[in-house]
Amino acid sequence: MPASARCRPTCQFSGWQALRLACRDGRLQMVQRLLDRGVVPNDDDIDPQGPTPMMLACAGGHLACVQHLSVHGASRSCTAAWADDDLAPNGLQVPDGESVRTVAAGGNHDDLVDFLDRSAEWCTALHHLTVVPAGRVRLLLRCGADVHARASAAGPSPLDLARALGASGRAEAGTGAALVLAAAEAWSPRSHSLFPTAARRRASTLLQLGYMMSAAFRGAEAAWTEVWRTVAALRARIKEAFAALTNQGLPPQEAAVQALEMARREPRKIPFAARTSLWKSRFQAAPA
């Protein structure tokens, strides 16, 4: 009996063990169900020397299983002595510290190697836009997922990947990529539902305030509302740019300067008709 098998008698039927078996056999629906129910793919405390679900999926060349494990943050490093485990493929020897890419390449799983290379710096679930369902993408965005998240300065962000999908015609309405592209725009009624709870609450408060203030512009309420909406969107753009820059490690003062400069370079133009109507109402209402 392998040493790793002797150390887990009480965990034989655990969710983690079930996940390993499902990944070894390429049972995608079971893998999805276990991950969605909270089974952690990196639970090394159960069997620190045995093969992880990710290692077994790579050994078997099960691309879809590897993709879903990656969405849930599965580690891509290998552990020592796992070739002695009863679940490991016969004769497979992988040095400790190597990545699962070595396992996939050893099995001549070229499509899997290509995915592992492309996704090496995908650090959030939102990066996996072709795997994560649109409903979950929406939920991630509403919970505050960062469309600008990067593993490194040179790594892609979810927004970069969404733009690439859009350029290749794969960001149709209703897809995760389309939702990320919409969430990256300045706030608008169309993108309101994609913002986190706090941002949606703040936007609603600002718009309510704008509608209340429109009473001072009798005859031009619609024009004032359009101007106020533009101001609110500009504030949202600056705040979003500031958050993205600070996440990249810039000091707050420098991030604030750059965020203002970015907003200045790409201003959201106020419709000319709205400006004309608004200022005309102000001059007409001014006392003689």
From TrEMBL:
InterPro entries: Ankyrin_rpt, Ankyrin_rpt-contain_sf, Multifunctional_ANK_Repeat. The keyword ATP-binding does not apply. SMART domains: ANK. ANK repeats lie at residues 14-46. SUPFAM superfamilies: Ankyrin repeat (SSF48403). Keywords: ANK repeat, Repeat. It holds the Pfam family Ank_2. This is Uncharacterized protein. It comes from Emiliania huxleyi (strain CCMP1516).
